[in-house]
Amino acid sequence: MDQSRVFRPMRPCGRWLVLSLLTLTSACTLGPDFSRPAAPAQEGYIRDPISATVAAQGQAQRFLPGAEVAPDWWRLFQSASLDAVVHQAIANNMTLRAAEASLRQSQDTLMAGYGVFYPHLDVHAGADRERSAPIQQGLGTKGSIFNVVTLSGTISYTLDIFGGERRTVEGLQAQVDHQTWLTQAAYLTLTANVVNAAIARAAYAAQIQATEQLIELQKQQLQTTQVQVRSGTTPYSAILSLQSLIASNEALLPALRQKVSQAEHLLATLEGVVPSEVKLPDIQLSGLSLPKDLPVSLPSVLVRQRPDILSAEAQLHQASAAIGVATAAMFPSFSLTGTYGTAGSSPGSLFAGAGRFWSVGPSIDIPLFQGGSLWFGRKAAIDAYQQAAASYREVVLESFAQVADTLKALEFDAQALQKQAEAQAASAEALRLLQANYRSGLVTYLDLLAADVQLHQVNIAYLQALAQRHQDTVGLFVALGGAGGTESTPPAAGPAHEALRHSAHRFQTPGQ
């Protein structure tokens, strides 16, 4: 008989190797496989969608459903000075740098997590001087003193039979996704805050100029009234009324100048410099073009674009993976370990054949009773998933409401600006007619000054309405999530949702 074909029993090492391979091939991953929330079926955000705002100052804003948001949306204001301020902030902002560092940290943590899928190799070397105690073995002989030098290597590998390690790494990947969208939210919030602060600064400066002109006209009106009082044609109470009005308007100036300073200090912080070192270009409100065509992402696109929604989705994914980790912890864990080494009484004797030793084999840890900790740990993971699912839904609902608010705000802003423009035109025409009548001697100079004061008051209200329209336009870009949050494109750079909800340094009239 051909001895080469005689069946021989496997050696123990071979049996364990085959058993391990069979176990690996039959490995499974416990816990739910994450499924993304379905995109909403709605096609709009408000009940009666509008295609365009009313024309204010001859300019309407058109809403383009399904159009994409420009990556550098702030360029639509067509101001090179504004572009420069935004780019300076992107390059030097500390919040953005911190977010990017957190993103890198999560990526490195993920790479560290991948190490569980590879064998671990360790080397151990030791030198000991020992004294034996034969009495411990029941011998009455005298103990001896000797040296022991060892050199060994150990290789171990965790068999992820039930997928606990895979779910752990899946959770780490979800954490990277979460941090990615937090970073994108920081980027969007930064650019929006810079643009809004620049608009506010320009609006406050314009309002200061208009208020100073108004006060100058009122002082001229006061001088004329004083002449009339001295001539006996006007009661003295008219002087007191004008003095009170002038003082009230002068009281507005410190508050306006303070708001300009606050906007400049905010811009300095956003640019990563101290207020004393900030150098800001002169941005005029009149020099900012109002974007005419405004993209409006569809709801199904918004949930795949807005960073706070994607961040909440990543947290939901992370909670799903945690269920798998908790489930796998309830099952046995397996590992393979092999050790090879040598020992001797001196370093020179380490490589003598008599001192060699080795071991190889599997190990299994079976959780039999843990006082309910594993069972309730899994229930807690399920509860956390349900909480994350509710939070995701809330973020989506609030995001839709924010888009709806900005769409309505832009329509109402246009209506308000239109009426302010009509009031401005009427006041200007009234002043023109009074100027003609004054030249004809039909009205007094005081009447002419009163009309001029009225026009300047209307101009201030117009500036406020114009600034509000610009900032609500910025609000729409923020509500849509900008353009850097699309899933296919990684971002250029407190929770994301809160950042987007409170991202704007808003223009306010004094006293607000």
Can you characterise this structure?
The chain has a four-stranded antiparallel sheet, covered by helices on one side. A two-stranded parallel sheet has the order 1-4. It contains ten helices and six strands. The protein has a domain at 72-118 and 162-215 and 252-331 and 373-501: Outer membrane efflux proteins (OEP) (Up-down Bundle). Helix content is 55%, strand content 11%.
- Assigned CATH class of the domain at 72-118 and 162-215 and 252-331 and 373-501: Mainly Alpha
Coarse shape: elongated
The whole-angstrom Rg is: 38 Å
CATH superfamily of the domain at 72-118 and 162-215 and 252-331 and 373-501, by name, is Outer membrane efflux proteins (OEP)
Query: How many strands?
Result: 6
Strand content: 5-15%
Distance between the ends: 104 Å
CATH architecture call of the domain at 72-118 and 162-215 and 252-331 and 373-501? Up-down Bundle
Derived structural class: alpha+beta
With strands numbered from the N-terminus, the spatial order across the biggest sheet is 2-3-5-6
Strand and helix map with partners:
Blueprint: H1 12-25, E1 62-65, H2 80-92, H3 94-113, E2 120-131, E3 145-159, H4 164-231, H5 237-270, E4 293-296, H6 299-302, H7 307-328, E5 333-344, E6 356-365, H8 373-439, H9 445-479, H10 496-501
Parallel strand pairs: 1-4
Antiparallel strand pairs: 2-3, 3-5, 5-6
Helix pairs in contact: 2-4, 3-4, 4-5, 4-7, 4-9, 7-8, 8-9
